[in-house]
Write a structure and sequence with these properties.
Bacillithiol system protein YtxJ, BrxC, 112 residues
């Protein structure tokens, strides 16, 4: 499932959902080739993972809020796995791939 985030309330929803199961916050650029490649990987994973995404140019204030509230350095493209309201891993550029995201989420779920 892919949810587009527009504001703080949407980020609140992503954080709340992470208390039920791990979710991915995906930030990407509309003009970056690294982002285009990462977006394809995330698109393949969206059928198995809950993903909350933004295009950084469209909501620049939200990209900053995400970094601050989740205590991660802002990068783009970036996939942040949230679990129990906290950022537990942070993937950037070529680190963002379908298999790695699915494995990381599966391991978190198995550990419960």
């Amino acid at each position: 499932m892919f949810n587009i985030m527009h504001n703080s309330a949407d980020l609140d929803a992503a954080i709340a959902a992470s208390h039920e199961k791990p979710v991915v916050v995906f930030k990407h650029s509309a003009s970056c080739p690294f982002s285009a490649a990462a977006q394809i990987e995330v698109a393949h994973a969206k059928h198995d993972l809950d993903i909350y995404g933004i295009v950084v140019q469209y909501v620049p204030e939200l990209k900053i809020e995400i970094a601050e509230r989740l205590d991660v350095e802002h990068r783009s493209p970036q996939a942040i796995i949230l679990h129990k309201g906290k950022a537990v891993s942070d993937h950037w550029r070529s680190e963002i791939n379908e298999r790695k995201l699915k494995v990381a989420v599966k391991e978190l779920m198995a550990a419960e």
